[in-house]
Amino acid sequence: MTITDPAVGENGTTGGRTRISPRALDRIVSTVTAEAFGSDPKRTSVTVTDESGTLNLVITTPVKVPSLLRVNIDRSLIARTGGTVLDRAEAAQASIMSRVSELTGYSIGRVSIRLNGADVIHERRVK
After folding, report:
1. Among 62, 59, 65, 68, which residue's Cα sits nearest to residue 29?
2. Residue 15 within a domain
3. Global pTM value
4. Which domain holds residue 29?
5. CA end-to-end span of the chain, whole Å?
6. 3-state secondary structure of 57
7. 127 lies in a domain?
8. What pLDDT, in 10s, does the model give residues 13-43?
9. Which partner for 34 in 41, 62, 86, 123 could form a disulfide, CB atoms 3.0-4.6 Å apart?
C-alpha cells in the first residue's frame, strides 16, 4: 500500500507558497553583508525594492580596514586584508548578490553598496 500526500504533485513538488517577510529579508541581507565586510549586522541598513519580480538592494554599511600606520609600514597588508576598499566592495557586491539569491530563492537585479564608515582593525601582538 502506498500513501501519498495530496498536496504533492505528480512531479514531486508541493503545492502552496513560501513567503519571506520584509524584516526577515532585511536580516538575511544584513547578515550576508556583515560577513562580506567583517562588520556588525546591526550597523548595516538595507532597502529592498521590487522591480518586476527582481529585487534591488541598497545597502549601507561600515567596512573594516587596517590602520593606515600599519599600511605605511607594510604595503602587503592591503593584499592580505582583501585588497583596496574598492576591490573589496566590488567582490562583496557579487558575493552578496549570489548568496542572498541562494538563501532566499529570489532573483537579485542590482546591489548598490554605500560605505558609511571605516572600522580600524587593531592587530594584536603575538606574545
Report:
1. 59
2. no
3. 0.76
4. 22-120
5. 69
6. strand
7. no
8. 667 777 888 899 999 999 999 999 988 899 9
9. 41
Query: Following DSSP, what letter does each residue of 10-55 receive, concatenated?
Result: TTSPBPS-----HHHHHHHHHHHHHHHHT--GGG-EEEEEEETTEE
CATH value at residue 114: 3.30.70
Q: Which three cell numbers stand for residue 90?
A: 566590488
C-alpha cell at 89: 566592495
With respect to residue 10, please indicate whether it lies within any of the assigned structural domains.
no
Cα separation of 93 and 12, whole Å? 35
**Residue 1 placed within a domain:** no
CA dihedral 27, 28, 31, 36 (to 10 degrees): -140
Q: Are strands 107-121 and 54-66 parallel, antiparallel or unpaired?
A: parallel
**DSSP secondary structure string for all residues of 92-105:** HHHHHHHHHHHHH-
